[in-house]
Specification:
Length: 368
């Protein structure tokens, strides 16, 4: 449950010893400054056996980077227009993460959260910093799963077309034309959250990525940590003529597949491997074809040279490079796979990262 401003104010009045040596002597709600500005709270603080100071407080119930930046600007405006000098601008939220804390530091704004973290600076008289305590209010986390599953396709599309999109409709069409299916509603919600996270630039006529490298990093973080993105069980087979298997997939059986892992890296001239690794949409179709001898593969869990995994994740199939007799995951998907594939993968991922950030992507494979 998300805390209201009233609940946050009540928590401040009951802060007790949590923020020692900082104590609250007086808290005034919804007050006007001498400059005429209406502020959430003004607090008279003191340090045990030390100096006291007065803070102008802006409360944020949800600490998205965008909300924090707006709050910091509002506080700076309050202080600049206040005819009573020496008030400290202070932002309060249920939890302030590392990124948000950095924004406030850059703007010269002190902050305090209800999870027990704070950074208070009063000219050269007082400096208190206490960080590292976990978020006690996880329900207030502003962004969830937009870098996983279908939602992740929005970030991938922004990386593929860094010059941006003129509308949400254009983005929907771009994604759906690349072997995926997404709705306008999903794109709208994800874009809103990316905007709140300051990861995109958004105006009335353009939506574009603000920092491609940072956006790619966020995709990688969620790829590695996601528990929902687990692929199905992998089956190993021995195949004397893998090319014949692919011909059967394409021409007779209509089995959707894409090369992945180091095998995909080999196709893209980034690695060498003697193993074939592919994703398929339906493992049942492959097993039926094998039983009927429609494809010449033999189960071999120990020495098999072909590994086949069922994959439902839309990121696997999005923007894949599908040709008459071959199909391979796109550079962004392969980059994410390689990040998690040690020990060889990270070096290949670095090459892919440079390629992705340099070119933005052109329908699957990108060439130097």
């Amino acid at each position: 449950m998300r805390l209201t401003e009233k609940q946050i104010r009540q928590s401040l009045t009951n802060m007790g010893e949590r923020y020692a040596p900082l104590t609250i002597n007086r808290l005034t709600e919804q007050t006007s400054l001498l400059g005429g500005c209406q502020v959430d709270v003004v607090i008279d603080f003191s340090i045990q056996n030390g100096p006291s100071f007065k803070a102008v407080v802006e409360i944020k119930t949800v600490a998205t980077p965008q909300n924090i930046l707006m709050g910091a600007r509002q506080l700076a405006s309050y202080v600049a227009n206040d005819k009573e000098p020496n008030k400290v601008p202070l932002l309060v939220a249920p939890y302030i993460g590392t990124k948000q804390a950095k924004i406030l530091e850059e703007k010269g704004i002190s902050w305090l959260d209800l999870s027990g973290n704070m950074s208070i600076r009063v000219s050269n008289r007082i400096y208190i910093e206490r960080t590292g305590k976990p978020n006690c209010f996880p329900d207030t986390a502003p962004i969830k799963k937009i870098f996983q599953g279908t939602s992740s396709l929005v970030s991938r599309a922004l990386l593929l077309q860094p010059e941006g999109f003129s509308s949400l409709y254009e983005m929907v069409d771009f994604i759906n034309a690349r072997n995926a299916k997404i709705t306008l509603s999903t794109v709208s919600k994800v874009v809103k959250k990316l905007d709140e996270e300051l990861l995109i630039n958004r105006s009335k006529s353009l939506i574009s990525v603000a920092d491609p490298e940072k956006l790619l990093e966020r995709l990688a973080q969620d790829y590695k940590s996601s528990t929902e993105r687990k692929a199905g069980q992998t089956y190993r087979y021995a195949a004397d003529k893998p090319d014949a298997m692919f011909v059967a997939f394409n021409e007779r059986l209509s089995i959707d597949y894409v090369a992945c892992g180091l095998y995909a890296a080999q196709i893209k001239n980034l690695a060498v491997t003697d193993k074939i690794t592919i994703f398929v949409r339906s493992m049942e179709s492959v097993n039926k074809a094998a039983i009927r001898n429609q494809i010449q593969i033999t189960p071999d869990a120990e020495f098999g040279n072909v590994s086949i995994t069922e994959a439902k994740d839309p990121g696997v199939w999005f923007n894949s490079d599908i040709k008459l007799r071959s199909a391979v995951v796109d550079d962004i998907e392969l980059y994410l796979e390689m990040i998690a594939d040690t020990p060889r993968g990270p070096k290949i991922a670095e090459q892919l990262k440079r390629r992705i950030l340099r070119k933005g992507g052109i329908d699957g494979q990108q060439t130097d």
